[in-house]
Amino acid sequence: MGMVYHAACDHPAALVYLEKALNIQENSLPLNHLMLAAIYNSMGIVHKAMKNDAIALSYFEKALGIRERYLSPKHREIGETYNNISMVYKSMGNYSDALSYCEKSLEIEEQSATRNHPSLSIAYNNIGTIHKSMRNFQTALSYFEKALEIMKTFLPQNHPNLSYTYQNIGGIHNALRYYPNALIYYEKAYEVQMKCASPNFSLLSKICHGMAAVHKSMKNYPMAVSYCEMSLEFEEKCSPINHLSVATGYLNLGMLHKLMGKYMPALSFHEKAIIIMEKSLPTNHLDLATAYENIGDVYNDIEDFSSALLYYEKSLAIKKKSVQFNHESLAMFYKKISMMHLFLRNYAACLSYYEKALAIWQSILRPDHPWLLVTYCNMTLVFDRLCQNKKTIEDTVVALSIAYRALGLGHPKTKELQCYFEHLKQNHIEK
């Protein structure tokens, strides 16, 4: 019953029934019984669908521990568990472990299945998705094409399972910027699904999202919006209204409307997404940080700098705590916040964030890097606003030194800095 609810995308109800089944089995069976492994595996599948990756991983590892104890190392149920663990690691961004477990799963499938067995096509598809996430696009494409070749040998040309592989290949062509090819494969995937008696709305949502992404890359924004709306409609047919996938649809529409200069609809879609995400995600989740930054960017574009700053600071609070957010990106974000303070004439705060960005860049960049030049130039303007003449001149000297090395004496930026320095000397030294 639990997996029936899972198939219907009602994951909370699925968990209720699976937990009841687990309680019964744990009270009536030995702790390492194979039937428990099956329930642990199902619990992991449902938690993965709910993006509870750490919990999903713990259940899959419990299932694997039992299965490894009682089954042969090459048993297909062990291969299935390796694959499930692999997909969780992929979702967590741990691609090296994801690839390792997926290759173990593939090895078992290759040894236990015939050359063109359907399960091999699934394994090739999964390993292809990991290489895609690692940006090994050509390798991913080769695995997807292997999967498609096998599937065509045992499936009719309009079988719904072909849609998954067509979609995957479309995604690779999009990543490689082969946009016409990407659209061809996405359209094949869409046509196959629409001919089904019971279309997979979740897959149709992903296919339409892919077509929206291609049209966005081609700057066909109205077409991208149309497909994005279709994607959201399909998602709403298979997910609760407050599901994270629905929030993703709102985010995508928000970003497209921003690109088209339609800022009020963009704000509305971002706000809808954030309402869902704040209810569904931990307060320190990086996806929330991205959502806050996105809506901050819209407020920045309409010059509502106070609102932009509010959301940027929310985003920063999350990003500073994340091990996945690197120092270079943090420095760029400090620079973005400093600009908001500059526009709001909060010069002391602006300077503070520039100094934080500068400290990071000085530790990771070469001394003549253009970002250092830009930062020193910006800081001179802030010191000037604060009437700190000595610091203004000092930072201008540093900026000039970098400009000489990085750009040369004849570069317009170097000449501009030289003129500014002469102006400072006349106004603050010679007086």
From TrEMBL:
Domain of life (superkingdom): Eukaryota
Entry annotated with the keyword Nucleotide-binding: no
Gene3D superfamilies linked: Tetratricopeptide repeat domain (1.25.40.10)
Keyword annotations from UniProtKB, A to Z: Repeat, TPR repeat
Listed Pfam families: TPR_12 (PF13424)
TPR repeats: 37-70, 79-112, 121-154, 247-280, 289-322
Entry-linked PANTHER family: AAA+ ATPASE DOMAIN-CONTAINING PROTEIN, TETRATRICOPEPTIDE REPEAT PROTEIN (AFU_ORTHOLOGUE AFUA_6G03870)
Name listed for the protein in its UniProt record: Kinesin light chain
